[in-house]
Design brief:
membrane; 16 helices; cell inner membrane; 12 strands; alpha/beta; 414 residues
Length: 414
């Protein structure tokens, strides 16, 4: 690998890459009485068409704030300070609220980790799903209404023909056929007046069936508290996919579920991704979830992305010391006699983050430049990028930092 190639930043390398959403140098801060919380501090990534990107990191590293920034739902005192979020060529941060509302819920939808708190307890499941359909799927409703009307017209025509046949038989003095009467009753039952809300409810039942809920018509009448955790999460996925979005943001969708239900939900999401041709941003702290469902992964630490690339490459050859620490900390049945590897120290306070590389107070490979210079997200190998001075030709020969005994004691406190 030549030095010139290694010095290319992610932004330079991927500037012509075709993608669904492009995020560049995104900064989202929270302005509190204690100080400014730098929750998202210069994040960049791409999500391709029909691609699943995993955003992984410890609690409080900025994953969820990044997701909320994409749909402009950051609440006060938070504010998107600067950056570029480009969705199919549209600059999200420059859109009016009305324009953003058309994208949010239609082209981009989000499901959350706690469906019980996300679903409205006073409305039935069917009403909540159909509300999204009524708001964003007007064309689909129009088509469904036309199909329904066509079916109703067909039933009416069959009733008309049957009545004429029965009248003709009566004129001929033939006995009334009980089968004809029964058929007439069945056809009359099929004639129902349905308004647009009824049709939206039918579509809600259809989408619930697609997420693996067998008795979908009955479930539309239930309230969230009447369902199990796995069922509620399926409802959230159904709601997210009801408008056939181009991007689905899943924020810790399996955290509150047991491992069996978690596996079912992940298989379901993979299946639906192919069926709906949807891209997914999967936010999690679970590397097992990342390996199961994602093609690419962005490892986040303290508001910044420290490593980015194909899942297989990063799992087999993690380059950033933090990524290496995360993967080494996964328990293995092959090494039952060995103690679990831990990352020493604590996650930094984002009001007063460390200078330079934010991981340097916990890093075994710390160099003298690490607390002075912010590392760039640089090309390492094909589609693999790392933000570490160890892989930057300009700084990789910097002298190794000598830890004092006091610093060692502080760093080892967990």
């Amino acid at each position: 690998m030549n030095t010139k190639m290694e010095s290319i930043t992610f932004e330079e390398y991927s500037k012509n890459e075709e993608c669904l959403i492009r995020v560049r140098n995104l900064y989202t801060y929270f302005y509190t009485e204690e100080g400014v919380v730098k929750a998202v501090d210069g994040v960049s990534f791409n999500i391709g068409y029909k691609e699943t990107l995993g955003l992984v990191g410890e609690t409080g590293c900025g994953k969820s704030v990044t997701a909320l920034s994409l749909v402009r739902l950051v609440r006060d005192p938070g504010k998107i300070k600067s950056g570029l979020i480009q969705f199919e060529g549209k600059k999200i941060l420059e859109l009016t609220e009305n324009e953003m509302r058309d994208i949010r819920g239609d082209d981009i939808t989000m499901i959350f980790q706690d469906p019980l708190n996300s679903l409205n307890p006073v409305f039935t499941v069917g009403k909540q799903i159909s509300e999204a359909i009524l708001l964003h799927q007007k064309q689909k409703l129009k088509e469904s209404r036309a199909i329904y009307k066509e079916g109703q017209d067909s039933f009416k025509e069959q009733i008309k023909i049957l009545k004429e046949e029965m009248k003709l038989k009566k004129k001929k003095g033939l006995e009334e056929n009980h089968k004809d009467r029964k058929k007439l009753r069945i056809l009359r039952k099929k004639i129902k007046k349905k308004n647009i809300k009824d049709i939206a409810l039918d579509l809600s039942a259809d989408i619930l069936k697609k997420v693996g809920i067998a008795d979908s018509r009955e479930i539309t009448k239930r309230y969230p508290h009447e369902l199990s955790g796995g069922m509620r999460q399926r409802v959230m996925i159904a709601m997210g996919l009801s408008c056939h979005p181009k991007l689905l943001i899943a924020d810790e969708p399996t955290t509150a579920l047991d491992v069996t239900i978690q596996a079912q939900i992940l298989r379901l999401m993979k299946k639906l991704k192919d069926e709906f041709s949807t891209s997914i941003l999967m936010i999690t702290h679970d590397l097992g979830v990342i390996s199961e469902i994602c093609e690419k992964v962005a490892v986040m630490y303290s508001g910044r992305i420290v490593e980015y690339g194909p899942v297989r490459k990063i799992f087999e050859n993690p380059k950033h010391p933090y990524t290496n620490g995360l993967i080494s900390a996964i328990p293995s049945s092959k090494n039952l006699d060995k103690d679990l590897t831990t990352i020493r120290g604590m996650v930094p306070n984002l009001i007063y983050p460390p200078d330079g590389c934010r991981f340097h107070p916990r890093c075994d490979h710390r160099m003298e430049c690490c607390d002075k210079v912010i590392p760039k997200l640089l090309f390492s190998e094909e589609d693999h990028f790392v933000s570490c001075h160890l892989f930057d030709p300009e700084y990789q020969n910097s002298p190794k930092y000598e830890w004092s005994e006091n610093e060692k004691d502080l760093a080892n406190q967990v």
